[in-house]
TrEMBL record:
GO cellular component assignments: plasma membrane
Pfam families, per the entry: SecD_SecF_C (PF02355), SecDF_P1_head (PF22599)
Entry annotated with the keyword Membrane: yes
Membrane-crossing residue ranges in chain numbering: 258-276, 283-301, 307-326, 347-372, 378-402
Protein name: Protein translocase subunit SecD
Originating species: Geosporobacter ferrireducens
Amino acid sequence: MKIKNAIILLLIVAIIGAGAFIGINGIQIGDTQISPVRDMMKLGLDLKGGVFVVLEAETDATGDELNRIMVQTLGVIERRVNAMGLTEPNIVREGDKRIRVELPGAKNAQEAIDMIGKTAQLQFVKTNGDVILSGDQVKNAEVVFESNKGNVPSVSLEFNSEGARAFQAATKEVSAATDINDRIIAIILDEQIISAPEVREEIPNGRAVITGNFTIDEASNLAALIRGGALPVNLTEVQTSAIGPTLGLDSLNKSIDAAKIGIALVLLFMLIYYRVPGLIASIALLLYILIVLYVFIGFGATLTLPGVAGLILSIGMAVDANVIIFERLKEELRNGKSLRAAVDSGFARALTTILDANITTMIAGIVLFQFGSGPIKGFAVTLMIGIGVSMFTAVVITKMLLKLFININIFKNTKLYGA
């Protein structure tokens, strides 16, 4: 029994040690390669360098009208940013009228601002390149459900009087074409085709419906893009900053160094003050760090400086749970209980306190994520992931390792367990 527990404990420690080695250095086995965690992690603007800009819409609209305009503007900016080919852009709405755009890897701040801030250009174009009408002649575009076609989503267009006349003349001409390719009118936004419907008949009343195998989301997106060309909003540059890659790399290196020092001090304290339980907690803490980092990578989360702060804080909270458990363990040992009984009782009595502390912090993280902006959201995400994983490692893994260690029956002196 002792040998079996010892083998299991050594195997777990070896797996954690191997995971830490691979996380730091990476590994390649044949054609399979696992990169170091640092290379797999997506870095935010403050670590990778790039450009961020806060834009404010010049509009007096309020309520639902303002929300509709901002959604359209957000969609247009996202298309432009994606066209720039940048990795991990972050585009979020701040408050009622502002949009924050973070572009990691962008080098020219003014070029990026000019690209994302220009007024949307929407055009309806025939296959020969002739422009039929522009976005300012579109009154509205919305999702409709046609009952005669099984309530599938479509996009309804409405033009002003000038646009209706131009559209009628164009549809009369193209619908009579013998080649199906010549019966297409392309809808182009910012020089990119967003839809290319076939015209089957003349449309005289200034109203048209684009049908197809749309999902609700696809139809809503197309309608929003078309409205975005019809309802342009001037954007004012409120705040701009360009962070060089050298500065970002320096911030990352300093953050990693600070994390190393902090973790080393925490592990040292646990070993000195709690002895055997401290050693077990240190092993569990290494597993905790590995799980959090790989969860980040798996979710494709972007690590920022506030995120690093959240990670270090969550490490402290993981240790805090162990401190509560080990203090309970010491009390049980002083009351004369055996090691096995003291472990079970200590974990059971500490669980309520740990749950209360972590749940209240999780609520704070949810509030920060819901109402915060980009950097604050990064901190909140890291904190919430850390809390969830710390509960698992502190309560489940630490208890399992501690029981395995006690079952080996090498160290029986209760003083080695902090009593």
